[in-house]
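Hi all, a correction to my earlier message: I attached the wrong file for HDOD domain-containing protein. Here's the right sequence:
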Amino acid sequence: ARVLAETAHIKDPEEVFAGGLLHDIGKLIHAMYLREEFAGVIANVMETELQMFESEEKMLGFDHAQTGSTLAEKWRLPRKTVNMIAYHHLSDMPDTLTKEIAAVHIGNTLCIALRMGSGGDKRVPIVNQKAWEILNLKLSDLEYIMQRSTKLFEESVSIMDFQ
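and the right structure:
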């Protein structure tokens, strides 16, 4: 998300970086406090073509973006951060799509596509066209974004020695 923010000249790329780090915090809450139900959600994702958030909505009645944004509000995080968490799938399109939300949405999709960890989804989601357009990126920017993101990810992994 940070590389997208920098490439799209978003004012505060570090704010977008924080949103990118926190966007799936709701999954952690589900895994910790709804263990059996969340195991069912994951099994459903593996058995169907549903994305994680779709399976959560079907089986729990809410998704990790809702849980995460509620937690972020309780933590009194900035509204921009709450919105990046709440709308990162763009399934419920916000009234005003911001560049920050778009960067987290596309960053999430790229991380899944580049296999930078696993959020539980078995297929790569489709990037929302409006998100791409609001960032005013060209297809030629994508190669740089992917290479830079991969390099930063590999550096982070080596620093933490997770290999």
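Sorry for the mix-up. The chain is about 65% helix and 0% strand.
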